[in-house]
Amino acid sequence: MRISTNQLYDQNIRAIMDNQKGLAGTQESMSTGKKINRPSDDPVGAAKVVRMTEELDSLAQFQRNNDLVTGSLDQQETILRNITNALNRARQLTIQAGDGALLYSDRQALAAEIGQIKEEVIDLMNSQTADGDYYFAGYQSEIRPFVASGTPGNAYAFQGDSGTNEVQLSNSVTIRSTASGQTVFEDVAARRNFTVTGTAGVIVDEALVSGLSEFDTFYKNNYDPITTANNNFRVTVTAPNQVEIRNLGTNTVLSTQGFTSGEPFSFAGIDFTLNGNVGDTLDFQLDPPEKKNIANTLHELQQALNDPSFTDITYREALNDAAVGIDNSLEKIAFEVSSIGARLNVAESVYETNLDLEVSTKEARSAIEDVDYAEASAEFAKQEAALTAALSTFPRISGLSLFNYLS
């Protein structure tokens, strides 16, 4: 087969150019540290690298979210624990205020401390983030949640809403990052109670709740939010030594008890002292359940301690209201603190998982795109030797001619 001079030159030049191209590619990979410097180097590998880079960006954002939400939850937990400490002190003062030996000046001193605790608690409930947002305002984070309203029975009003924010920590995990003051502080159950609605012949010396636990059980079992008539009851003196307690709505006799006019008797945690004869009656009803925020509970306790006109019964009832309100508030706050602890545990677990995913994803991406310098160095030496050989042999081969042999 005859090989023309053009073919010989083209073939050798092509070989030299190919060697130069390979050598340049290896040099670029060694300088950048990447095997894939453009999609054409490895289309499939380049697509995988893009996907892995996007995944690493998402993981980085999730970790930033985790850091932010962990700091916020830690701060909220600190706030709630400080409120708990303040309310525990208020509870001690409430118990102390029940001492019958206290003088009015002693009650005033207790009222002054309760007032300081109230201001501290309100300040904590209105705590703000570093950005100036209120932790417990719900979605209305720029509005101060608890403010003095001046309204009788609701001295401190809640201006926020029940909204809560959530933060995504991974593709499948989202946790609540805030709590609404509506849930934690505002919607606190007040003490359940009853109201005497009427009497016929009976003189009432006393009718009040003395056994809170027993009355709460009776209330839960008998209060009817739908048929209000079922919340009405009647105490009837059926004999000189006997009374009957009947539900007027269902006409069911609930209890028959011994009775002595002017002497106390108890029913479902309620102490009655009645003066009456056979046929006399007393009607009472279960009051609808109420909710009262802790600021109002402390405010009303302060007022009761400062008011010298309160009768003994009224004063004791005010202390009972305060004690139950404080206990229910502490229960609500404890539940939220427990919830924060659970969410912090989840955040920590997800953080560790994301770190593991980040490491494995980086390793997988590195295996696809990063250069093995030992392998690349050997390849560079081989390509350099091939190029050098091509450059040195081509002039000799191109100089060969038939005339060299004819001479």
Automatic annotation (TrEMBL):
Keyword Secreted: yes
Pfam families assigned: Flagellin_N
GO molecular function, one term: structural molecule activity
Top-rank lineage group of the source organism: Bacteria
GO terms (BP aspect): bacterial-type flagellum-dependent cell motility
One annotated Gene Ontology cellular component of this protein: bacterial-type flagellum hook
Predominant localisation class: other
Keywords noted in UniProt: Bacterial flagellum, Cell projection, Cilium, Flagellum, Secreted
Domain Flagellin N-terminal: 3-140
Family annotation (InterPro entries): Flagell_FlgL, Flagellin, Flagellin_N
Family: Belongs to the bacterial flagellin family.
The name this protein goes by in its record: Flagellar hook-associated protein 3
Organism: Alteromonas alba
